[in-house]
Amino acid sequence: xxxxxxxxxxxxxxxxxxxxxxxxxxxxxxxxxxxxxxxxxxxxxxxxxxxxxxxxxxxxxxxxxxxxxxxxxxxxxxxxxxxxxxxxxxxxxxxxxxxxxxxxxxxxxxxxxxxxxxxxxxxxxxxxxxxxxxxxxxxxxxxxxxxxxxxxxxxxxxxxxxxxxxxxxxxxxxxxxxxxxxxxxxxxxxxxxxxxxxxxxxxxxxxxxxxxxxxxxxxxxxxxxxxxxxxxxxxxxxxxxxxxxxxxxxxxxxxxxxxxxxxxxxxxxxxxxxxxxxxxxxxxxxxxxxxxxxxxxxxxxxxxxxxxxxxxxxxxxxxxxxxxxxxxxxxxxxxxxxxxxxxxxxxxxxxxxxxxxxxxxxxxxxxxxxxxxxxxxxxxxxxxxxxxxxxxxxxxxxxxxxxxxxxxxxxxxxxxxxxxxxxxxxxxxxxxxxxxxxxxxxxxxxxxxxxxxxxxxxxxxxxxxxxxxxxxxxxxxxxxxxxxxxxxxxxxxxxxxxxxxxxxxxxxxxxxxxxxxxxxxxxxxxxxxxxxxxxxxxxxxxxxxxxxxxxxxxxxxxxxxxxxxxxxxxxxxxxxxxxxxxxxxxxxxxxxxxxxxxxxxxxxxxxxxxxxxxxxxxxxxxxxxxxxxxxxxxxxxxxxxxxxxxxxxxxxxxxxxxxxxxxxxxxxxxxxxxxxxxxxxxxxxxxxxxxxxxxxxxxxxxxxxxxxxxxxxxxxxxxxxxxxxxxxxxxxxxxxxxxxxxxxxxxxxxxxxxxxxxxxxxxxxxxxxxx
Length: 771
What we know:
This protein is α/β, with parallel strands linked by helices. It starts with 28 loop residues before the first strand and ends with a strand. Mean pLDDT is 79; it is low at 1-45, 333-353, 455-467 and 471-500.
């Protein structure tokens, strides 16, 4: 890790086993327009029927819903680095809520999406419901349970110029009162189905709330309602039990190998094992999403003889089948109806809705998967090819895909056409930031793709009556530019602010003005206007307080930050850890170190702020002469994170100031040989996740490389200006961030003296005498 920013908050926070296939064993592949053998379900409906929905049925979704706060960056920040986001979006998130939004927007009938989840009874929870209700009468929130605080997820989306696919880093904060099994009675579950305003055609479970979800799934099964279960990641025995009840399953590309790792790292082997061991014979369809490659589906069949050919079902490797399908897709020429960007004279289609995926490839015969006895046809659905310029954010792409699949399964639509539509919907989502903004409405989807969901029931309104839903719907999402991550995200601009009299659009504009301001005065003015508009907006207060803190307006900063905390506490919320940390910084600057250390300790109780707050606590302890406490605190931090460079440099200074010269030299040498300490272009931290042996090997490799460089005449200065020894060769790296006494101690160490100098908060350079 790099520097502890004493005057700011921290940042916010499977592959296939491949081999060349012998030509004598090539899989038979057909385009989806050819005759296909039906895969029957228990209720005599079919997955491969080529038909469409005759009647819209509802999808009951059971799972997660919360607040997403998403920042889009050009590059991922280094520890304690300040950066500017291109966009900040706050909107409803959670797998289940996102998937049901896709269902709702593809639907005509009212109550087509029914959400069962738990959302906080706080202001944020009320706004979450309000935003979902703006989807229109197709989204039913009447079954939501309320209580506690609303869960939230911070998402950092990075569109690196070196990579076509954006990366996402998610930091989830769960509710303080998650849904408990005891909160939902059997009568509640009975009512969930009995009082539904529309016939439920499918129950979808995203793998969360598993205790309650199991009971709901059992009830759905008793009513003959089909069950779709999502397996995104390992979630314990309860998810396994839920998967046993599934008629259909959609898993992530990583889940099979996480669940069933194998020596050859074979995706097909793991997927087959999942089909045999995790799923029951009840399950007729298993879909695995493959990210930018597309998706693969297994259509299970009990027959031992292929009725199309009359031959005994052939045993084949799943990896080989998928590999050959991908090769066939890559070599297949684009045709006018598939793979060409869609163009239409329809005014409903904007230029951004242009990526239409090609048709799926399906094997002509049933195969015995890996010779395991599990028999299925294999489908490969290619992803839509989105240009790197148009690819914005993949957050929620899987949810968009699953929601569309759920919509098709709920009414018995052709699965191959459904997969193609689901791929299109997922692609459209990726063209905008966030999980919901890019989801298309039914009227925005090309007719050729909406065919599986074309309904003939007289009860449905015409498409014309649903037109304009996007323009009529107020999304409630707030976009802004972050000046730096040291500022709080404007959570409370999203939440209700003690009444509906606040002009939310105006408040959002003021946040944008403040965060885009080119001068301190302009930013101060915008924050002040925001506070005048919404006096109880804790985010505006904390942001103005942080601005004043960075400008050296210590007392004014304390007033704003303290008031922000008081508002949150009054509303029953826990004081924000980053605000507490900033408040401690401001108090320290005015000499109130005892109170500052108390704030740092409180902030350290939050896992996301623990290291930063404790580092500030250690620096404050040394500033006040508690050298032993400073050393012990720094050692505690470094045991957990040996690569925290700033704290390693601080511990060097602490030991030197306390007269432990040998220990100071040891810590300095450790700093100079940690991570990139050997002057290499890449940090050894990149392999730490592979274990201690890999990390030690990388360090040894770097050390040997350094020795060879030195032997070749490469000077120390040429080994890298951003390595630890170079960064801390002067006190410039820490001046203005550390308090004056630890800064002076580092100065004394670097000059090998018992006296050091540092600039104090009053702007005067002072001299400190050490042991």
